[in-house]
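I am still learning, so can you show me any protein sequence you like together with the matching C-alpha cells, please?
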Amino acid sequence: MSKAPNFDAFQITEKHYNTIIKQGLDNLPKESGGFLGGNSDGLVQAIMPVYNQYLFDRTGTFMVTSEDIQRAHAFFQKHDMLYYSVYHTHPNGIAYPSAGDIKTGHKYHFIVSYVNKEQPEFAAYRIDNNSPVQLPLTVVSDKGFSSASKKGAKSQVKLDDRDALNERISNIIYNKPNRYDRMDPPDNSDSDFSTLA
C-alpha cells in the first residue's frame, strides 16, 4: 500500500466536491463517507463512496472496516493514484476531527459539516502529534481535468470499471439511486479490526 507524501494543502475538482456534498445531504441525518485519492500534488482525482459499516446509530458515527481500507488502497493503486484518506460527514457537528477520528491513525482527515445545510463546510486536516492542523482545501474547475498517471500517461483503467464509477457518480449528482453491494471479508481474515470515525 503506497503512502501519501506530506501535504500542506489539497485541491478537489468541482465534480468530486459536488458528489461528496450530495452524498452527505442524501444520507442526512446519518453519517456517510468514503475514500479519497489523487496525485502527489494533493489534487483529489478520485473518490470511492462506501457504506457506513457502523451497526448501531449511524447519526453520530461513521465506520469502515480494514477490508474497506484495503479495497480503497487497491482501487487507487490500480488507477495510478495515491490513497489519501477517509472522508466523512458530521451531520450536526463542526468540520473538525473528533477524538475518535484522530484515534483511527489516519494521517489526513476530510470532514464535511452540515450544521448549515445551505452552505456545508468541507475541511481537510493533517494530524501532527495527535493534534489536527487544518490545511487549505480548494475547489478547482473540472475544465481540462483528466485522469493521468504519475508518469503523465493516461491511466490504464478498464472501460467497464470507469463506466461503472462514472455512472455511480452521475447517479449521486442527479439524485438517482445507487446500489452498493456489501462485500464479505476474505475467508482467510480472522481480524475484527475496524476504523471508527
